[in-house]
Amino acid sequence: MANEVVVDALPYIDQGYDEPGIREAALAMVEEENKRYRPTKNYLEHLPQLNLSAFETDTMKKEFERLAQKQPMDLLSMKRYELPTPPSGKMTDISAWSECVDNSMAQLQHQATRICNLELMLEHSCESWKSYLEVLIQLVLSAQKQLQSLRKSIQEVNWQRKNEQLQAGDNLKALETKWVGLVSKNYEIEQACALLENTLRSEAAVSAESGE
């Protein structure tokens, strides 16, 4: 109960929020309170220090360093796709020619792998894409269902809040009407008492004069 917050605002009942100057006055009060509020406790002290590089890989770190130093990005190396011949000084070197042959065989195998991938894509990509779209649609439908459920919950809360405030407003109006009636009746009683008192004083004065 010590931490219970009592909200005395009834936005569905209270009037005058849209009147000129009300919003500005409320913002001014908030600004004034912010100037006077001085937090004395660090509410984040129980949390560990923020590590901004927790998910950075070595490649990302090098790239961030390059950006910080404003260095240009390295161009894509096409050397692996070249088929150079041995240097002029090694045209008769069998090992140099062997390296060139190995390079050409590696690139030939790479191209064969690409062709195989293209053939597999032509054969299976449509079905694979359809399966992916079906999964994606299911995810979208699930997210939409959750969103609708959340919106329904929010609407129910708003309707409940509105009904409670309308009931409270009716009770307040009834109590206010009753209070006005009681105040008016008390005023009438006070007026009648004052009139009766004046009448009694007048009669007492007349009786006193008659006795004399």
Q: In terms of topology, how is this protein built?
A:
Elements: H1 22-36, H2 58-68, H3 94-211
Distinctive features:
3 helices, mainly alpha, 212 residues, 68% helix, single chain
Describe the structure.
- The chain is mostly helical.
- Helix content is 68%, strand content 0%.
- The model has no long low-confidence stretch (mean pLDDT 87).
Could you spell the SSE succession in H and E letters?
HHH
Structural class: mainly alpha
Q: What value does the Rg take, in angstroms?
A: 44 Å
Biggest beta-sheet profile: none
Report the portion of residues in β strands: under 5%
Mean of residue pLDDT?
87
Low-confidence stretches: none
Helix residue percentage: 55-70%
Shape assignment: elongated
Number of helices: 3
